[in-house]
Every structure is written in C-alpha cells, then in structure tokens.
Amino acid sequence: MAVFTVNKDRNVIPNFRNLTKTTQLGELDSVNQCSVSLIPSFHDIQSLASDWKKTPSLVIALDLMNHAILSDNKSLTEAIEAANYVFSHPDSTQRQKDFAGKFIGKDILNENHNYNVSFQDFLTDENRQRIRHKIKDLKSFVMIYIRNPFAYVELARLYSIVGNKKQAIRSITTAAHLAPHNRYVIRSLIRLAVHYHEEDLALFCLRQNQYLLKKDPWILASDIAVTTSLSLPATNVKKGIQLLESWNDNMFHISELASAIATLELMNGSRKRSRGFFKKAIENPNDNTLAQVEWANSKDSLLNIDVNYEDLNTFYEAKARDSYLAKKWQDVIELTQKWFVDQPFSKTPVLIGADVAGSVYQDYDTASMFCKAGLISHPNDPLLLNNIAYYHALKNQTKEALEYLDSINFANADQITQLCAKATRGLIHFRNNQFQQGRVLYQEAIEAAYSNNNEYLYFVAYLNYAREEIIANPAQRQTFIEQVEKIPGGLSLDIDCLKASIIGNRD
To answer: How far apart are CA 281 and CA 257, in angstroms?
Structure first.
C-alpha cells in the first residue's frame, strides 16, 4: 500500500533557489530602517564594502566592482556579491550586466537551468545530463574563483537536486566559511541542513550570527522556524515580536518572521494570537509565507486566513495547498508539478501529486511518475520505491512491482515504510492469485498498525486488503462493505477514496 501522511507539520524554513531567482524575489534587499546615502563618500575599498553591506544599491555595487579591479582584489566576497547583484538587477543596463558577468565569470552562477522546463522535461535524461554538466562547469569555476561563496551555494543546490548529500553539505559549509554572515548563504545552509536532517549544522550557523539575529528579520524567522521544528525553546520569539512591533520598513521583509511566530502560537494552541500574526504576515507576503498560511488553514480549519492569489502567479506551493483544501484536484496535479520544478530537491510535492493522481483519479501512471521524479533527489528512498511498486501492482504489473519492492534497503526504512511494504507484497500476491500468502501479509500489516496505535495505517491497510478480497471472492463483497462503512470519513484523502471505490462496487 502507498502512504502519504508521514509528516503533517510544516515550518517556515527558507526556500532554496539560485542567486538570480532569490534576488529577483526581493529576499536579498536591504532591510535597514535607517537612512543611508546611496553615494559612497569613501574611496577606500573596505569602506565601499562596508557601505555595500549596509545598503546594497547599483551605484555602490558598480563602484565597488571598479575598485576591486583597480586594486586587484576581485576575490573580495562583497565585490563578488555586488557583481551578482548587478547581473540580476532589473534596472541594470545591458552594459552593466555584461561587466558584472565578466567579473564573476561568464554568468555561470546565474544560468536559470530549470525554471523554464516542464515537469516531464525535467525527468528526461537530457535535462539530468544538463545538471551534471552544470556541476562540472561550476567545479571548474571554483578552482579559479576559490573565494566565491555563491558558486559553492549553487554547487550545493545542484548536488541536492541529484541526491548527493555528501557533496551538497561539503559545498554549503565551504560557502558558509567564505561568507559566514551573508543572508543568502545562511538561509541556503539552513534549508539544506533541515532537508538532510542535519539540524545541528543549521543551529551552529545561527549561533554564529547572534548580531544578525538582533536586526535581520529573515535570519530571525529562520531561527524561530528551526527551533520550532525541533521542539526546542524558542528563545528569540520575544525579540521577534519586538522587531515586528517596531518595524517601519517594507512589510515584505517581516513576512516570514510574522509567519514563524504565528506557527509557534498555533502549535501552542493560541488560535487568536496565531491569526493576528498570520494577518500581519500576509500584508506583503512571499511564497514561503503563503504556503505556511495554507498549511495552517489545513491544520486548523477555524483559523480561516483568506488569501487572494489573483496576482500571485508563481506561488506554486501555496496555490497547490490552497487547491488541495478546495478539492480542485486537477489544479493540484498541475501545481505540484510546477512546485517540484521550482524546488526539485523536495519530496513533498511529489507525494501530494501522487496522492491526488492515484487516489482521486486512479491514474497510476501519473502517480508513479511523481514518485519516480522524487527518486532524482532521493535515490533509493524506501517510501518512494514502495509507492511505485504499489502503483505497478494495481495495474497488475507484478513483475515490475517486485523489482521496485525488492530494491528497497530495509535497513534504511522506518517502521511505517516496512509496514507498507509488507502490505504491498500482500497486494502483489493477491494479483498473482496467491491469495493465502497475500492474506497472511495483509493481516500482519493490519495487526502491526493496530499494535502501534496508528489509526491511519490501520484503516489504509484494511481497505487495501478488503478491496483485494472482494476482487478475489465477490461473494464476500457485502461482508467487507459492512466493515468498510464503519470507517469514519474525512480522515485523509486516500482513505476516503479507497472507501468510495469499495462501496461503489456494490450491485
């Protein structure tokens, strides 16, 4: 049997995109509330670098790049950061972009290699080869520009897409060593560390940036999100609330901070306070905040935070979650594909897409395709392999199903996946007319779910078993239907769909 509801909770962990996309979204803009002149009054490169860190602007960035060239200091972190800023800024002239591109090296960091491809295109060998070539080019680039932190961040991102954890972690820690106080580097490291369950690395990075935690709402939001996800004392919440109350800059910059605090309040049972912080968060939100709002609405239906998506064309995760709540199933299929292309290292969009495709539409080819997409960044993932085997078995492709099921390394599988795989093997036996072997395995899975007090797995296992018994012996149909009708509705999409498919088989 397939399983989807493994991790219900969500936190405002930063998204992980390339530098160009992140800059275009405005997440790297200055958050200083004080007024600083845009024209540098110092001609010393270190003073220019300091001015750049205080208030990034095209004027300062271009001046800093010129001074870096004249002083033969092109490896200066701030100068490289300024060049990337100029290259991706919408107000830069073509000549300025060319200048910046040459400075950082043939615009290699900014090639937007996956945002313009479709979900199906992303799965092709050609596109995977393209990613491998990009990794090779970047490795050559960092051998020349060894102090460019953003090249290492991009390497880490690409390694995460192809599922190379060791190299991804090595690259992101190198970037953090080169630019330990850069917002983009810090937030990228946090996202990658949480993705690979290396939260200690994220916490260490945050503790090394106590100064930024006092003034940068983006970093403070990440700190609260990480500690919340780990159920650690959220020591900086008071600081975050004070920053929200005193904020007089662009509300976009406090969107994630307000959302992170709202999430903590929701988990602590304070719906009223949570709603207040979420309303502040959506005054000028980013996509991460809106996705969090949709998760919160699904967590507590009485929260009722309304979002207008009319002008938010690229907020794929948030819109997918919103469509899921509204039961707009075809929209969910399309949006989860776009969400995956935007964040191809994430397993969540493929699980949601597969759930809808397989449960609502019984489209097992599309459901399997979603799970196979997840294998790109999660090779040999036991849950995904089991789900693929399940979909093949439902199409009576038992040989292919066994190949996927037998490829699972159960030493790396948790108890939930092991239980599901046992039920999937039972399904394969049923479809091979080996009814007694299948019956034994299903009963073992059902009993294991009951012993672990896992209501969701218990019902899913029983419903899958009931379906197979009815197919194998139609005379037993009414007996099983009577048991199926006792299962409450609204527990999960897959349970509701399984019930409907079985009850619908009545004469």
So the answer is: 8
